[in-house]
Amino acid sequence: MTDKNTGMLHGLKVIEMSHIMAAPTCGQMLADMGADVVKVERVPGGDDTRRFGEGEHGDSAAFAMMNRNKRGFAVNTRSDEGRAALKRIIVQADVFIENYRKGAMEHFGIGWEEMHVLNPRLIYCSVSGFGRTGPYAERGGFDLITQAMSGIMSITGEAPGRPPVKVGAPITDITAGILSAVGILGAVAHRYETGEGQYVDSSLYEAGILHTFWQTAIYQTSGEISQPMGSAHPLSAPYQAFPTKDTSLVVGAANQNTWLKFVDAIDAGELAADPRFKTSNKRMENLDALVENLTEILSHRTTGEWLERLEAAGVPAGPVYNVKEMSEDQHTIARGMIERVPAATGGTHGVIAHPVKYSATPTSIRRGAPLVGEHSREVLAEYGFAADEIEGLIASGAVHESDATAQAAE
Description:
The protein is an alpha/beta fold. The protein is 41% helix and 15% strand. It contains 19 helices and 14 strands. It has a seven-stranded mixed β-sheet with strand order 8-7-6-1-2-5-14, with helices on both faces. Helix 6 (143-149) crosses helix 8 (204-210). The chain is elongated. The two termini are 28 Å apart.
């Protein structure tokens, strides 16, 4: 960790009024790249993620995962003074991110139309379940629902006819957050050229649809509706997991050249000569027979033994890791993908680091996740509030200051 901010977005002022995952992921991407991100939480309680798992005073590992590098500001949105203070801050920002239900921001007096008039340079990003237009715009958004409706659950699982299965990770939430960050950066580039801000509208639903590239291509071309295939690929084979003598192994021998290397590495030249497996299309037509043959062969050696052979032959392959094994893998460590950040209440949290490396403007984790309202006082001061205004807002309960911050100031 470092206190020095040298990121490429240094100086970009972002207000993130968010909860749970999608918008917090978006804000964290920007914060890692150097933006000054202020996380706005409603009181009492703040972000529900603070109560996911164990954590003292809302300082949970789940909250820390998506909210490092941010400062905490907490406001009572039922208070006229609180809403006015929030509006006064947002109007001075470069970017505003929110992921509440449609109409909530307008109810608080900080909707896009009004804020755009007050600050035409403001980039205003809404992350929602289904977007702000269309027949489902009023619906709330949850990863489970959007995985189901985007088609992801229809192609996830071992085989057709079994109960629907969602992807274990909340991929529509996380992807929507990343796509929102991409959209904001595009809007920032546009503003450099024109001086104008704009509205960025992203959704979990569309983030889910984005993951169906292959299956949508198949349907749009042939009308065929893809079915669950376990770990297999819908267009080429072998490209899936196989049981070995001890665990499981994934093999990516989909193109013809790699297929021939693969069968040679596993001493199965007869499969290369088999007319059922001569080409990728033939292997897909006879996938069940191919899997049966490969499973028999691969079951005689351990995953480690096969990996040595396949890596030597230049065949893409890998073990099936659990999260512990992934975290402790030498490559994960070499790429710096797990870092420990200070917990606001003492100790540390392990978090996933920024996933992109930059040669000139590296990202950094400069602070852990804040407590509810930990930086309310300093944020108000930086956004032009006088000392007596700050005292009044905090004393009235319109703005909340964490107990730890208040005690430190005494």
